[in-house]
Design brief:
Elements (H helix, E strand, L loop, with lengths): L1 H12 L4 H16 L16 H8 L15 H15 L11 H4 L22 H18 L8 H12 L1
Helix pairs in contact: 1-2, 2-6, 2-7, 4-6
Length: about 160
């Protein structure tokens, strides 16, 4: 469907990073496993980075909401970390402000249902992967186009890919 093609095109336009591209491929595979259905439900907005609202309000077109002038990589990192943790089911959520959360210490073991994480379509994990894109773009911008990926980004990417 068009929304899935638009999603993949948007996500793959930038950045040119193999780990990121693999994450996008995993999202496309997940959406394919759902039959590319488009749920009317969306992921919880609790703790969601403000950039997502900004992006959605502009029809998901901006490669970097506000052209990156209003967001910092560290803010995006913290926003994604908090949002991802809030999206986790109770059995996987880490304590707010805990060392485990600061160290991206989610256990990779399924102990129950994924619950509210299963929202296929344009209002699901697409927004989270867009945040991962923006975080990486902001890092590259702040490092004056260095292509070095922070270990925190890779830890988050690994956990999202596992889930």
């Amino acid at each position: 469907p068009k929304w899935a093609q638009d999603m993949e095109t948007y996500l793959l336009e930038r950045p040119d990073n193999d780990s990121y591209k693999a994450l996008v491929a995993e999202l496309v595979d997940l959406e394919s496993s759902y039959g590319f259905e488009s749920s009317t439900k969306s992921l919880s907005t609790k703790g969601r980075p403000d950039a997502v609202h900004h992006w959605i309000a502009r029809k998901r077109k901006e490669q970097l909401p506000g052209n990156g002038s209003i967001w910092k990589a560290s803010d995006m990192q913290g926003g994604i970390l908090d949002w991802w943790n809030s999206l986790m089911p109770d059995w996987r959520q880490l304590g707010r402000g805990s060392n485990e959360l600061r160290n991206y210490g989610w256990v990779q073991e399924v102990k129950g249902s994924w619950g509210d994480l299963r929202h296929p379509g344009v209002n699901g994990l697409y927004s989270l992967i867009a945040c991962m894109k923006w975080w990486l773009l902001l890092v590259f911008q702040e490092q004056e186009d260095s292509e070095e990926v922070p270990k925190e980004w890779q830890l988050m990417r690994t956990d999202i890919g596992w889930v």
